[in-house]
Amino acid sequence: MNATVTALAQVRARVARDAHDAAVDRLATLQSLLRQGFLTEAGWDPDTETLTPPRTHPLLGADRGEQRVVLAGLTELLQTELLFAVQARTDAGAKAGPSLLRGLVRHLRAHDVTSLTEAPEPPANLGTLLRTMARAVRRALATPETERHNDVWDLAVFGLRGTIDFTGISQSWLRHTAKRWAEHDLPRHRSLHASRARAMMTAVSSFSECLRLAREDQGEVPAALSRGDIQLWLDRLAYQERSTTLTAELRMTRTQCLGRFLTEIRLLGFTAPGGPADGLSAEVILIRGDVPTRQRRESRGRDLPGWVLATIIDQLPVLEQQSGIGTRHLIELMIDTGRRPDELRRLPYHCLDRASTGEPVLVYTDFKNNRPHRRLPISEDTAQVILDQQTHVRQQFPNTPLGQLALFPRLGTNRAGTRPLPSSVLVRWHRKFVQTIAHLLTREVTGRDGTPRTEMFDPAWIVLYSYRHTFAQRHADAGTAPDVLRELMSHRTFDVTQHYYRVTEKRMRNAVDRLQAPLADDDAPPGNAAEPMGTCPAPSPSGTDRARLSEMSSHLQQLLADWEQRFATSLDDPSVTPPSDTQIARLRNLIRQINDILP
């Protein structure tokens, strides 16, 4: 009995000693991160343990009443955490007046807590303040090495945004493998959102749930898995799609993600002896036929009809009234340039340049493909939108150096105007605008039977990326060469560009008509004799003139353009037949003969 009591006492002493050592390390780390300049500016007095910011402080001195915040009675660690959290919020441009800080201190003192991360939920008016301050402290003390032991990762520790949740993966070996894969993948993200890693973990969690429910060992033994477990998971996804609990798009995405995950963990050596997935069979993998094909929408693309785009442009003053002139300028640039939303909302102040010939050029960064200093020719009207926005943002932040200023700065927590507008805010404002003008997305059309009817456009089709697809479709319809369109869209290959536009029925009809026009009928009666530019009403010998030569020259240029487009893309498009070399040679010879005849 005495031995047991002694052992328990030793355990308690060791735990207390470890906790004390951790608190000492925590205190030393936070004290090293506190800046003396901030403490002086904020009015911190260590002798009286009070914080008295001046009323002129842009973020701490906003209250009209008492300015002093007394931290006496709190532990040294808790005081340091509070001071560091206030410093972090001030650096981020977030306001925290003395009255809110006093309320939070009273809450902490009443519950006798020793750390912000252990504080209970406060009243509603203090909840956001406590959560953000505790998060700032937690992130300051975390490192990628310590974060990897958690089942929910705060991606800010890795320099990204959001979180990755591994709690849906119940098998310990699979969760460990997923974490090892994420450690390898996260440093390779150029985007701040880590959407690929999150999508991958969603697919792995789905596979984990299937193993847990279907296998007697709940999938805890990797060597016991087989191709049958993959097939069972695939059948489960197919059933979920048929029962409308999973969309076809999500089914395809999850299948692709799990396939890549299983392939990459083998390439990284995680299935080798000693690895977290040691013993996983080579047949636990997805093959080509397992991944469903993407459904192609043949009825319409993702571009907006001309009349819908015209309605949006006419209603841009509504967007300006709702969300400000900056948001209007941003949407105007999306319509005019077809850039990705991230490329425009993250534009720096200096993004407008002039070519050697004097025409305006937009200088931006293709974040998706990691291609900085991309140059896009724009019109003078589009350049004026940028100039107007530069004037607007300069008036908002007159003291910020232009080289640090964002062209489209966020509204809150952005004292200097250096932080760009968040994508979530832009999406929310745009959705609100579209919902406001939804009743205007109608037009009167005449049916095949001649009966007039009202056509309505679904506002759900109007998203930020619609403007990029519309930009591509307009250029394709205007006959922009494929290689030029690929450069305009900033794509590395034309295969990607193809997904942004479609061959419309009108263009296919023109192609068919162009092929049929030169065909001759040997038995045609007089008056129907075929000629290169149509039908001859009087097929008797006659002279020629310059007008006919101009038409034939234009026809030759069109044939040459069709020929170049066909072989520049190396695509087999059954709707377009390229002109033959013989046809081009004959037309050239005819033009040459006419030039010789005419004076």
Automatic annotation (TrEMBL):
Residues 303-513 form the Tyr recombinase domain. This is Site-specific integrase. Residues 520-551 are annotated as: Disordered. GO terms for biological process: DNA integration; DNA recombination. It comes from the Bacteria. SUPFAM superfamilies: DNA breaking-rejoining enzymes (SSF56349). The keyword Nucleotide-binding does not apply. InterPro entries: DNA_brk_join_enz, Integrase-like_cat_sf, Integrase_catalytic. The keyword Translocase does not apply. One of its GO terms (molecular function) is DNA binding. The lineage of its organism: Bacteria, Bacillati, Actinomycetota, Actinomycetes, Pseudonocardiales. Keywords: DNA recombination.
